[in-house]
Design brief:
heterodimer; A: Cathepsin B, Chain A; Serine Threonine Protein Phosphatase 5, Tetratricopeptide repeat; seven-stranded antiparallel β-sheet; two-stranded antiparallel sheet; B: mainly alpha; about 70% helix; elongated
Chain lengths: ~325, ~120
């Protein structure tokens, strides 16, 4: 449609300059609602629970040095979450010299090394605004150029009535960007956005299963913080057996075998036929030196079978071997 | 070397990779595996072992020293390692210093915005 409009405009080029302008305005008007779908639907309604205007003025600002918007944006989020780091500290954690930039996955991974949970938002403009309204600055990946113009900025506020987003970006402490332009530069990353929060908090837009994966990812780099995050998770979603297993695993990793056992026994009541619960409970008991008790649980796990049968068999062998000694 | 010998030696290599890792995973079943879809568990365990060193090597080739590369991979989840392995070069790397390109885009976008407003 836009192409047709341009063609007809070209044909009439010598005829009438005013009609050209008219055609382009028409093309822009028709195109925008489909080109920028999220700003268009935001114009209709704002989620009712949101403020019409908010700006997190306390969020710190780290001006970007050459190519290093990744470390600068991350430092902004981390300091806001109470972790004292400078962009320079984060360069060895996210920056790739040969690519002159930082990858999205590494942006998500780095906060875990500082005990925070990283969460990639659902690709929705309203979710971005919801997080800001909840007091969480959001890193967005924008494309400002034609091919390799990828850039991280931190959204820290908005004014719905004026349709404007406020960002800490590059060299500017307070960049003001209309919603439509924000969407235009943001949509090319598939609306990629992330938050990083201390383990005793949950993002405003968190979905249960995706938040659980985010917490599980913290287990390896920082089991102590992950333990707190699981406890926070279980206050919100107490029925989630996988989160209970995760909590027990962090206890086990920290050498708190008694706690791991207690948590797993509770999980076994919640879901008596979970092979994973039975296997991990058996292993924990065995680590406590109670192999006879452990054997009962692992035998039951073996009877149930399923995709973890291999791991269960290994555990059973190990427990039997210990009993023979 | 005939075809069978080739197949058998490949099979042996695969088995040798598998064996030590199985021993390492016996015991506690990790939450990463629980959260992943359960039908793929066995496959991902092996793939993941290979992928972590693969991604660490890739990071090294992009200018990171070996110890730092390992630390960086250690902070990633299994899923993240999987999605990085093999396609690190095609992924966007945010790093643009805000400059001329930004100005151009903003002018174009501002024009679009202005038309759209009224």
């Amino acid at each position: 449609m836009v192409v047709l409009a341009a063609l007809s405009a070209l044909r009439r080029f010598r005829q009438n300059a005013r009609s050209i302008a008219g055609v382009f305005i028409l093309a822009a008007l028709c195109g925008c609602a489909s080109l920028l779908p999220q700003s268009a639907s935001l114009r209709e309604t704002l989620p009712p629970e949101l403020h019409r205007k908010i700006e997190l003025t306390e969020v710190p600002f780290f001006p970007q040095t050459e190519y290093q918007c990744g470390p600068a944006a991350l430092a902004t989020l981390l300091n806001e979450a109470g972790v004292k780091v400078t962009p320079e500290d984060l360069v060895p954690e996210v920056y790739l010299p040969e690519r002159k930039g930082s990858l999205q996955i590494e942006m998500l991974a780095a906060p875990r090394r500082h005990g925070l949970v990283s969460y990639q938002l659902a690709p929705r403009f309203s979710d971005l605004l919801t997080e800001i309204a909840a007091g969480n600055p959001v890193i967005v990946l924008q494309n400002l150029g034609f091919k390799e113009g990828w850039h991280y900025a931190v959204a820290i506020g908005y004014d719905y009535d004026w349709g404007k987003l406020y960002l800490r970006s590059g060299q500017s402490r307070r960049q003001v960007m209309p919603f439509a332009i924000s969407e235009f530069v943001w949509m090319r990353s598939g609306y990629w956005a992330m938050v990083a929060l201390p383990p005793d908090r949950i993002p405003a837009t968190a979905e249960e299963s995706r938040w659980l994966s985010a917490v599980a990812a913290l287990e390896r780099p920082d089991p102590r913080a992950a333990r707190t995050a699981y406890q926070t998770f279980l206050k919100r979603w107490p029925e989630n057996v996988n989160a209970v297993i995760g909590l027990a695993n962090t206890h086990h990793a920290l050498g708190e075998l008694r706690d791991a056992e207690a948590v797993l026994r509770r999980a076994a009541q919640l879901d008596p036929n979970s092979v994973i619960v039975l296997n991990n409970l058996a292993q924990t008991l065995s680590d406590e030196g109670r192999d006879a008790e452990a054997l009962q649980f692992i035998e039951r796990a073996a009877e149930l079978g399923g995709p973890f049968a291999g791991a269960v068999e290994e555990t059973r062998k190990a427990i039997r071997a210990r009993l023979k000694k | 070397m005939n075809v069978w010998a080739k197949i058998i030696s490949r099979l042996l290599i695969a088995l040798m990779i598998w064996t030590p890792y199985q021993i390492a995973t016996a015991g506690i079943i990790g939450t990463d595996q629980v959260v992943a879809s359960s039908s793929q568990v066995d496959r991902t365990t092996v793939l993941n072992f290979l992928s972590r060193s693969d991604v660490a090597n890739k990071l090294q080739s992009l200018g990171i020293d070996p110890a730092t590369a390992n630390d960086r991979v250690a902070a990633m989840s299994d899923q993240e390692v999987q999605s990085l392995a093999g396609r690190i070069n095609s992924m966007p790397a945010g790093g643009t210093s805000t400059g001329a390109a930004v100005l151009l885009i903003i002018i174009i976008a501002a024009a679009v915005w202005w038309f759209w407003q009224r």
